[in-house]
């Protein structure tokens, strides 16, 4: 993992506290810096500053330079619909995050966290995989083999303290927290059913 931070003092603090992270001093909107750090090999580029313009510009630049996916924090909810689905793959508005605690209670299955995206037009879902290869549709299967509902992608898997980027060959294990992005909200029930454990597990 690499972090780009423009504040030198903050860079020093981060480098002292983070063990397996490279902390870079510079601007995420610097094309030269992104080239030097081989952004085209980046699985996911996250722009998480408090400046919407910086986040949007750095994400668009990273995507055009070859980053596979870009996730952008946008504080102004009016900007979210303007950029989502173009060069920016995932746009998140913190103002919508509080809706997640309410949505979690109305979702079925092993859905433990929900965030509303694009002012409610899409959702980011955290689901826990349970069971075994007989009782689960996801456990023991590589991500590329899982039949996901249309408009749904797996972004990452959280396994204990480890975060795994969702490559097709990553195999889902029981207890994994799977982060999914659902563009078509009509498919959310299908996602819930995907993570429900069959009766053979009990």
From TrEMBL:
Any Gene Ontology biological process: potassium ion transport
Key words, A-Z: Ion transport, Transport
Domain of life (superkingdom): Bacteria
InterPro entries, sorted: NAD(P)-bd_dom_sf (IPR036291), RCK_C (IPR006037), RCK_C_sf (IPR036721), RCK_N (IPR003148), Trk_Ktr_HKT_K-transport (IPR050721)
Domain spans labelled RCK C-terminal: 112-197
A GO MF label: monoatomic cation transmembrane transporter activity
RCK N-terminal domain location: 1-92
NCBIfam families hit by this protein: PRK09496.1-4
UniProt name for this protein: Trk K+ transport system NAD-binding subunit
Organism: Halomonas campaniensis
Phylogenetic classification of the source organism: Bacteria, Pseudomonadati, Pseudomonadota, Gammaproteobacteria, Oceanospirillales
């Amino acid at each position: 993992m690499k972090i780009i931070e423009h504040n030198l003092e903050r860079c020093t603090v981060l480098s002292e506290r983070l063990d397996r992270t490279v902390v870079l001093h510079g601007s995420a909107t610097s094309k030269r810096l992104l080239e030097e750090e081989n952004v085209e090999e980046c699985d996911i580029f996250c722009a998480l500053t408090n400046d919407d313009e910086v986040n949007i510009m750095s994400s668009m630049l990273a995507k055009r330079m070859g980053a596979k996916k870009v996730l952008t924090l946008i504080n102004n909810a009016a900007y979210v619909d303007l950029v989502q689905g173009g060069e920016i793959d995932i746009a998140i508005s913190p103002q919508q995050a509080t809706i997640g605690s309410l949505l979690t209670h109305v979702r079925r299955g092993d859905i433990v966290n929900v965030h509303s995206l694009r002012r409610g037009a899409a959702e980011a879902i955290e689901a826990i995989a349970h069971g075994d290869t007989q009782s689960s549709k996801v456990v023991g299967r590589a991500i590329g083999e899982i039949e996901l509902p249309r408009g749904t992608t797996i972004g990452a898997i959280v396994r204990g303290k480890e975060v795994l980027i969702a490559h097709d060959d990553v195999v889902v294990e029981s207890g994994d927290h799977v982060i999914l992005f659902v563009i078509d909200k009509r498919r959310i029930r299908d996602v819930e059913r995907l993570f429900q454990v069959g009766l053979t597990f009990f």
